[in-house]
Every structure is written in C-alpha cells, then in structure tokens.
Amino acid sequence: GKLQSIKDKSAVTFYWPVDFLPNYYQFHVSDYISHVLGHEGTNSLFSYLKRRSYVSAIISNIQQLKTQSVI
User: Fold this and answer.
1) Which of 20, 30, 34, 48 would you label with 70, given CA atoms 20 to 30 Å apart?
2) Which tens digit of pLDDT belongs to each residue from 3-42?
3) How far apart are CA 45 and CA 19, in angstroms?
C-alpha cells in the first residue's frame, strides 16, 4: 500500500551565542538559560506558545564551543 502523512511537520531552530564566562563557570549560567527556555510548566515560554498553537514541542540544549556556548 501507499503511505500517506497524516501531519505536516515544520521546525524552526534558533541559536543564541553566549560568551564563555570562565569566572562564572561554577554558576552554570548556560545550563540555567537552557532550563528556562526549555521549561514546559505553567507560565513558561512553552505553555504560552502552545496555548496559541504556535508550537507542539520545544527543545533547549547547550553546545560548547572553544570560546563560547550556543543555546
């Protein structure tokens, strides 16, 4: 038989470069920012966007580069 998609999927990717802050490494600044952006609870960015049917999922992670992080 022939396969047919039941949903159209789209994705948008945003990158925010964050300067490497060696003096503040112990505070895990990039981890905190990633957590805030990726949080899916009440009053979160995700819940705001989902209520308006702008998103169905949100993923936030950190990519370490030599001189900066990308969130």
Assistant:
1) 48
2) 666 777 777 787 777 777 777 778 777 778 778 888 888 9
3) 23
Question: How far does the chain reach from its first CA to its final CA, in angstroms?
Answer: 42
Cα distances from 62 to residues 21, 40, 52, in angstroms, run 14, 17, 26
Give the separation between CA 69 and CA 26, rounded to whole angstroms. Answer: 15
DSSP 8-class letter at 41: S
Residue 42: phi and psi, rounded to 5, are -55, 140
User: Which pair of tokens denotes residue 16?
Assistant: 């925010």
* Structure tokens belonging to residue 59: 């993923």
CA distance 15 to 38: 13
DSSP 8-state secondary structure symbol assigned to residue 42: T
Instruction: Quickly tell me which residue has 């950190």 as its tokens.
Output: 62
